[in-house]
Design brief:
Elements: H1 2-21, H2 25-47, H3 64-83, H4 97-117, E1 126-127, E2 134-135, H5 136-160
Antiparallel strand pairs: 1-2
Helix pairs in contact: 2-4, 2-5, 3-4, 3-5
């Protein structure tokens, strides 16, 4: 019986040590998905030829380049709420391919870098003001789902212009 208790105690200590080595498991999972989203979003943005960035499928839809910038701006906004910092993207007005992809990349880097530095316990802290207050996790999740929604629109834009969207890689 003593041997069994010693083995159990050793297992518990080992498990505790292993868990302590990765105390940011949720943050790490979020970072992984954000990195995948960044890679895929940039691939989708790159798939449209530069001369088609002003293409507008039909009113009232916004042009392809403006949508890329919208994703970048929203990423910056949501993540600034989660991180309690200033949005480094603002509201871009240059919708050219080079500028929009630069903004998109910057927005993803800002979110990913901020998330990597965040202690997991801070994900559940309330952020923002008034009726739109949410947890840091809620703000990161909101940005993630918002970008996926609009990235899907970009894929439709690509198809309308005869371009093949890149394949999603999990």
């Amino acid at each position: 019986m003593k041997k069994l208790l010693l083995v159990l105690a050793a297992c518990c200590l080992t498990a505790g040590f292993i868990y302590a080595q990765d105390s940011n498991q949720l943050v790490n999972v979020l970072v992984k998905h954000w990195e995948t989203s960044k890679e895929f979003s940039i691939a989708v943005a790159n798939a449209m030829p530069a001369d088609q960035y002003s293409a507008q499928p039909a009113p009232p839809e916004i042009a392809f380049g403006a949508m890329v910038n919208h994703i970048a701006s929203a990423n910056g906004f949501y993540c600034s709420v989660a991180l309690g910092t200033e949005n480094p993207i603002g509201r871009p007005t240059d919708n050219s391919k080079d500028a929009a992809i630069k903004n998109l990349t910057k927005s993803y880097d800002y979110c990913i870098d901020g998330l990597k530095k965040m202690p997991e316990a801070d994900l559940m802290k309330m952020r923002g003001k008034g009726p739109r207050q949410t947890t840091a996790f809620g703000a990161f999740w909101g940005a993630f789902t918002h970008s996926a929604h609009h990235r899907a629109q970009l894929e439709v834009f690509l198809r309308l212009k005869g371009q093949q969207p890149p394949k999603y890689q999990f």
